[in-house]
């Protein structure tokens, strides 16, 4: 399971991959009930909702932590 960087909820990556369509530039469509994802800084970031993805895209530096 992945973790939403915005709210900390768990996200089922398999469900997200199964229910969403993406372009090379990131998510363009999704089922908000199944979560969504965004390609950011070389890796996929998973979100539990479009609202969280929107917050992340507004200021990704707020939610990304060096690991
Ligand atoms: Zn979230």
In short:
The protein has 67 residues and is of the alpha+beta class. It has helices at residues 13-19, 50-58, 60-63, and strands at 2-3, 10-11, 21-23, 26-29, 36-40, 43-47.
How would you describe what is shown here?
- With 67 residues, this protein is an alpha+beta fold.
- It has one domain (2-62).
- It contains three helices and six strands.
- The strands form three sheets. A two-stranded antiparallel ribbon has the order 1-2.
- The longest helix is centred in the last third of the chain and has 9 residues, at 50-58.
- The chain is globular and about 25 Å long.
- The protein binds zinc ion (ZN).
- The site of zinc ion has 8 residues, from loops.
Summed over residues and divided by their number, the pLDDT gives a mean of 78
CA-to-CA gap between the ends? 18 Å
Strand content: 25-35%
The biggest sheet amounts to: 2 strands, antiparallel
Structural class category? alpha+beta
User: In oligomeric terms, what are we looking at?
Assistant: single chain
Domain tally: 1
Query: Count of DSSP E strands?
Result: 6
Rg, alpha carbons: 11 Å
Helix content: 25-40%
Bound molecules: zinc ion
> How would you write the strand order of the largest sheet?
1-2
Gross geometry: globular
